């Protein structure tokens, strides 16, 4: 093999170029704080980092979804708490109205109070969120869910409750439809004594009681008076059933809020683990990197010095 001055020059330049590239690479790692700045730095770690970054993004999306679900459920819980108070007050009025010693004026006064409670409950059932969307209308959020004249109120909202994916394997209801809340009774509802179907619509049962209380009993036959009392008694049973149903929905919402807290805690732990895993894949080891940078810098300076000294030499000088 022939050794020439040109070959020595090329080898020296190649060594300097490689040393400079390595030194600059360590400098880049120090400036970015990343050991892997491009796939070629560590193909395996880079591939794993892509998969892990997707998992991190998904975890962040679920965190946002849980925040949305928490807001929706909390709002519905607040409205149902107010509805429970109204139904309880209405039930107390109806129980008192069953007193057989009340005069027609007393009964009419109770009817007026009951009308006010009924209107409050209707307003709650048709309440909206901060964006003007009706809470209990399912996915048909642009129209009031409950409409109709006294005694014939119907639910006209959506037929599906609003759901939200709050974790990879968990979907929960974040918006109940109004018919499940105000037009339904539970399986253990108080039955009617004569076996007839129970009234499920809380507004219609209140309307029938109000109409009965506004009807004077003076001058009516005993049978007609008893019919009015039966209407009030049926409303009393119906309100108990409605209150039980609303309380059941409230309990479900409370359980979901607790579950969301647990999922948030799990998501936070998952985030910490993923951050640690990502750091181990792509972040620099500062002690090692600074040490390598310093050593490579010294090696590069030595290469520069050696090349400078060699520039003034030839094979003839080396052989002397």
UniProtKB/TrEMBL annotation:
GO biological process: bacterial-type flagellum-dependent cell motility
Keywords, in A-Z order: Bacterial flagellum, Cell projection, Cilium, Flagellum, Secreted
Entry-linked InterPro entries: Flagell_FlgL, Flagellin, Flagellin_N
Location(s), subcellular: Bacterial flagellum; Secreted
SUPFAM superfamilies in the cross-refs: Phase 1 flagellin
NCBIfam families noted in UniProt: flagell_flgL (TIGR02550)
Protein name, UniProt field: Flagellar hook-filament junction protein FlgL
């Amino acid at each position: 093999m022939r050794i020439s001055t040109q070959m020595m020059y090329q080898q020296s330049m190649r060594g300097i170029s490689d040393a400079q590239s390595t030194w600059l690479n360590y400098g880049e790692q120090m400036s970015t704080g990343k050991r892997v700045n491009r796939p070629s730095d560590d193909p395996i770690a880079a591939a794993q980092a892509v998969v892990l970054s997707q998992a991190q993004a998904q975890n962040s999306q679920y965190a946002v979804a849980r925040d949305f679900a928490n807001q929706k459920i909390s709002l519905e819980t607040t409205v149902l708490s107010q509805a429970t108070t109204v139904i309880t007050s209405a039930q107390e009025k109806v129980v008192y109205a069953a007193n057989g010693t009340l005069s027609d004026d007393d009964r009419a006064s109770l009817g007026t109070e009951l009308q006010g409670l009924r209107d409050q409950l209707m307003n709650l059932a048709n309440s909206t969120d901060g964006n003007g969307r009706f809470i209990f209308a399912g996915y048909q959020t642009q129209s009031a869910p409950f409409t109709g004249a006294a005694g014939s109120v119907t639910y006209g909202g959506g037929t599906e409750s609003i759901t939200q994916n709050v974790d990879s394997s968990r979907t929960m209801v974040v918006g109940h439809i109004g018919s499940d809340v105000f037009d339904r009774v539970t399986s253990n509802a108080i039955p009617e004594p004569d076996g007839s179907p129970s009234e499920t619509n809380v507004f219609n049962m209140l309307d029938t009681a109000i109409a009965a209380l506004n009807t004077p009993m003076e001058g009516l036959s005993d049978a007609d008076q008893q019919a009015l009392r039966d209407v009030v008694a049926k409303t009393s049973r119906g309100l108990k059933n409605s209150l039980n149903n609303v309380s059941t929905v409230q309990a479900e919402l409370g359980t979901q809020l607790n579950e969301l807290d647990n999922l948030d805690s799990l998501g936070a732990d998952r985030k910490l683990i993923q951050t640690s895993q990502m750091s181990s894949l792509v972040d620099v080891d500062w002690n090692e990197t600074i040490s390598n940078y310093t050593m490579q810098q010294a090696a590069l300076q030595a290469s520069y010095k050696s090349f400078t000294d060699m520039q003034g030499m030839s094979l003839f000088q080396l052989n002397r």
